[in-house]
Amino acid sequence: MPAPATKVEIGFDLSALGGPFFILDDAVQGVLDNPTYTLGGTLFYDVSSKVLNVSVNRGKSRQLDKFTAGNSNILFINQDRAFDPLNASSPYYGQIVPRRTVRITTSGSAVFYGSVDDWNLNYDISGYSTAGAVVSDGFTYLAQQVLTAHTAVSQTSGARIGAVLDRASVDWPASLRDLDAGATTLQADVVADGTNALEYLQLVNYSEPGKLFMGADGYVTFRDRTDAPTSTGLVTFSDTGTGIPFVGVEIVYGSELLYNFVQIERNNGGTATASDSDSQNQYGVVALVQEGLLMDTDADASSLASFLLSKYSEPEYRFDRLTVALEDLSNANQSSVLGLEIGDIARIRFTPNQTGTQIDKYASIIAIDHDIRPMSHRITYGFETLDFASLILDDSVFGLLDDAYLGF
Known about the structure:
The protein is an alpha+beta fold and 408 residues long. 30% of the residues are buried. Helix 3 runs antiparallel to helix 4 (197-207). It has helices at 14-17, 138-143, 157-166, 197-207, 277-283, 298-312, 331-338, and strands at 6-13, 42-46, 51-59, 71-77, 101-106, 109-123, 129-136, 146-147, 150-151, 155-156, 177-179, 185-186, 190-191, 195-196, 211-214, 220-223, 235-238, 248-254, 261-266, 271-275, 287-293, 316-325, 345-350, 359-373, 376-385. The chain folds into four domains: 6-136, no CATH class; 141-223, Phage tail protein beta-alpha-beta fold, CATH 3.55.50; 235-254 and 316-385; 261-312. Helix content is 15%, strand content 37%. Strands 1, 2, 3, 4, 5, 6, 7, 17, 18, 22, 23, 24 and 25 form a 13-stranded mixed beta sheet that branches. The longest helix is centred in the last third of the chain and has 15 residues, at 298-312.
């Protein structure tokens, strides 16, 4: 199969470009509620014909890391200086400026949504010219906002995230949010003037703990700790011909996520600890300390400490990264992998060198990278282990007694 088509669109100001505008009584441009022909403002322009390649990086490297701003680098052919802000004959003259919105899709599936940080122009003396757009997602915006002094009300973590996004100093659109309610009740803490908005949101997420990330569609997304895995409809990657094939895989086994002493320090409250003496005797003491968390009770802090100890007190053998080549997949499999998002569950079945016992594991996606070129489109997924997973009643995989955990 050929690589599926990728569309790159940039939001340009229609007023400067002259349309296309709504025309009263016109049979095409005069249709009411038409999203193509508007009264003015910003419209996405397809610039895919000028794209050489695209890279996208979203997510995080390890389970306990924070999700940071995703980024994309887009390289354009620029022989006609269409992307040169000083070229008055460019069809986009006056539009090649920072903060223009960029939308990237493949076969209609969202790949990235963000805004331009920089335009980099490369003029080779031979006459071959390119322009590069450096793009980042909405977490970059949130990292640049600060909160004014206020006292929060006691509320769930999802409600707190929504309240922060609502504040006048942040003013994140309600239409670009996908927030779970949250399972942890947070205290009515005092937020100091000048507190970084993104750092505070990440503290809220750690206090849950959940997943707070920027979706490929540009939505601030929060998944609370009740967002448990399910085996229904999950994607299976396999080297046996019975699942989606992959072209590269990396496995990690070690102590990077080994913690046998956990200390949770609650803001305006006590300190909870949990330890595993057997693990300490075997591997030495390895401490995980989280400070200033916002849960409302010491009991919640104690439950979190016990949960994290159970999850991280032994070394893990995990699939770290896996790469698929879209051009090698059927249309159905292309659609399946393009539909995956951070937090989704995948099953991975792999027999290294076709020797010995097959490795068969379930994992949650924590990173998605794209490398898009004229004849290829490769997606690399980063994973966290699901060897420790919450018990899901009636689920054929995660509902087995003595095999999953009740969580907290």
